Amino acid sequence: MWKLVYPDVQANIADFFMEWLTDWYEIAVVRAKGFLLATIAETRNIWEHTDDPYANQVLETLNSLEEKIPFLHILTDWDYRTRRT
Q1: What are the residue ranges of helices labelled H in the chain?
Q2: Could you read off the pLDDT of 17-53 as tens digits, one per residue?
Q3: How do the domains of the chain map onto residue ranges?
Q4: Taking the model in full, what pTM does it have?
């Protein structure tokens, strides 16, 4: 469609896609963090109210995971143009 409307204008679809993908990754990370925090909270609630011998180990693991969630990210600073041939 682009070529029909703008036959003499070169469109670099890769640039548009990379911009969209970077934006989508930001959204995906926000959603993943929310999901993880909610899941950890629910799991903690279950394990805090049990006398299972593994409860302390599970709770320590949940605490450790929860501390790492703020650092969750997807690297999007790649330069895909350097690989073109």
Answers
A1: 2-5, 13-47, 55-68
A2: 889 999 999 999 999 999 999 999 999 999 999 999 9
A3: 31-75
A4: 0.76
